[in-house]
Structures are given as structure tokens and as C-alpha cells.
Amino acid sequence: MKKILLIGKLNSVVKETSQFLSQYFHVQLCSENSGVLEGMLKIVNPDLVLISLIGAYGIDTSSFFMLSDKYAQIPVLTIGTKEESSTFFKYYENGQFENLIRPVENSVIMEAVCRRLGMEQEEAERDAALKKEEKSGKKRILVVDDNGTALRTMKAMLEERYEVALAVSGAQAMTSIGKKRPDLILLDYEMPVCDGRMTLEMIRADEEMSDIPVIFLTAVNDRENIEAVLKLKPAGYFLKPPIKDRLLAEIEKVLLA
User: Fold this and answer.
1) pTM summary value
2) 171 in Cβ contact with 194 (< 8 Å)
3) What are the pLDDT digits (tens) for 208-222?
């Protein structure tokens, strides 16, 4: 996750900007004092410096000189009105500094930050999502079903307790597993083209996937169908639509096995 050093007086605008950007980046607040700033630059080693120019006439211009002289490799983004920015115009000539005119929407700040960092916004959002997943420590469950309504229902049942990934076909399930291995798979038995049985066979044929527990979901409640499902020796099976409490209990039992 990219690091941003946010410099400025600790007011409501700076707090709001910090809270917004902290969803996607590691943001460290810093006062506009040049001595404190230099120390923080050495400690944080930021990828970008963001300066709020509110109260610009009280900002020590030596901070700008220091950034351009000693830290020219770090892009700097400032946010201020035309009047607030005018004091520092000479620093914007070399390309290291860029100014956004205040008032400015968070979406515009995000776009400018990503541009200055040389990254796409989708990349920042993806990094943030991965970080959130790592912090949550939740088990990952892949739900495979060709019915969109069923997928949304299952996601609503599970997402409070688990990280949930969705796939609408066996082929999409294999791609999802390859990108990030789930701890358990809920697999619809009746799907067109590549049904649950074929998907399970593909999973078991791959050494890196073969030990992932699979629970079948089936809408057909007859002896012949259930016997066919059980012959595949899944970790479990449920009739659709499953009862939430029973499904969660079974998932927990399988994951602890």
C-alpha cells in the first residue's frame, strides 16, 4: 500500500481528506513545521507528499525549498485556493509540484493522487481490498451457481462471517480458485455445460486444489439424485434453498475438520 505524508493544520478539511484517502493508502499526518517535516520524511519515506494550503501565509516556504532541493524524487500535490497557492507558484514550474484548486471533490483528489503515483485507481482499490481482507482474517468461501439470484442470496447469508467470492460457472470457478484459493466451495450440482460433478472432478484433478472441501447444493430432492451426489464424496450437501443457520453450522464443522 502506497504511503502519503499529509501536511497541514489539523482542521476538519484535513481530517476529512485523511479519512477518505486512508481507505486506499497509508496516510501519515504531519504539521507544516519544516523541522518536523524533514524528520517525518526520513521516517515515513512517503511515495507522495500532500499539502493542505489552508492558512498558507503561515506555512514556512523553506518546506517547499527542502522538498524541491532534497526530495525532488517525491511528487508533491497541494490543495488550496488560487490565492493560497499564489505564494508558492514558483515551485510548480519543475513538475514535482501540482496544485488542486479548492474547494475540490474527494474523487478529484483521488484521481490526482493516483496520477501522481503513476497508478490506476482500480489498482489502489484492489490493494485496499486485499489489505482489508488480510486484516479481517476471515475464511474465504467460493459460491458457484449459474443463478444470479441464488448467488446474491448466498452472499447475503455468508458475508458477515466469511469473505465471499462468486462464480456463475464451473469455468469461472476454476479461474477464481487459481487467482485466490478458497477455504471452502459451495457448488451447485445442477449447472448447464459444466455441471457440479464435472467441476468437482476438475478441482480434484489439480493437486493444488484437490484438498479444498466442497459442499454441494442441489435443488432436486429425489433418492437417485442424492445418491449420485453422495457417490462423489463431497464434504457435505444441502437442498436448495438452504436454511441459513444449518448451512453456517455445517460450514463451520467442515472448516474445523
Assistant:
1) 0.53
2) yes
3) 888 999 999 988 777
